[in-house]
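ok here's RWD domain-containing protein, seq below lol
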Amino acid sequence: MSELEQLQDEEIEALTVSGGLLGTFVAVYPDILTYSPTPAGKEIKLDISIELEHERKFELVSSVATDTSSPGAGPSHAPAAHSPDSTIETTLTHLPPLLITAVLPPSYPRTKPVIQNISARHAWLSPALVRKLAIRLGEMWTREEGEGGILWQWVEDVRSGAFLESTRDLAHPSPKILLSHLITHQATAKQARFSAQAYTCGICLSTQRGSKCIQLDCPNAHVFCLGCLKEFWGMCVSEGDVTKVACPGVECVKVEVAEDQACC
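and the structure came out like this:
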């Protein structure tokens, strides 16, 4: 049995215990799901960040077309014609969260959830892509599949960015502003992931959480705990050898020594 199938089984089983499905879901995804009761059932909100498996190139294009047929013409609602000057290419692995609002009927998971709204933080997902995603998520549910629970599939499908597989253009009223938001989000997401993982310091060889380490911008991306690196660089400065205030990783030091010898 796959991990996803196991999660689906746990989802339907959770309906029969105190707290139900959503209590289990919150325990697994505490930062993703919130819910509240409504006359139609339980309204859920899924706040899902996208993390692509590999780097992908996207083109940020303007979603606003300008009508130049008459002097002083302003923005038009017609589809924008993308010129090279208004297109920005960027490479991404992380994208800002999508907020999916849906209602789970009282008979869920044997009844299909109703998607009410999908929105993207910083509006990076165009209306056309929102509609495409809503259809995709809706089609995942069948009576047979639904009885195993569909929320787990929604979360994993959105988080992996599978719905963007054939997408290259990201339309936005201001591609430059969108680029700034995307770069900031990606840097924050990467730092959060780094901080949560464990690494072996290249100096003291102890295992530390990323929040207590730093990854240097060197060819080998060496990681050191902050205390060791501070002490090593401080020693270099106190000894007057500031040229050694660089990566102390073995591979990087070998390259530096080889370059010094080549210059002699």
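fwiw The two ends are 63 Å apart (CA to CA). kinda neat tbh
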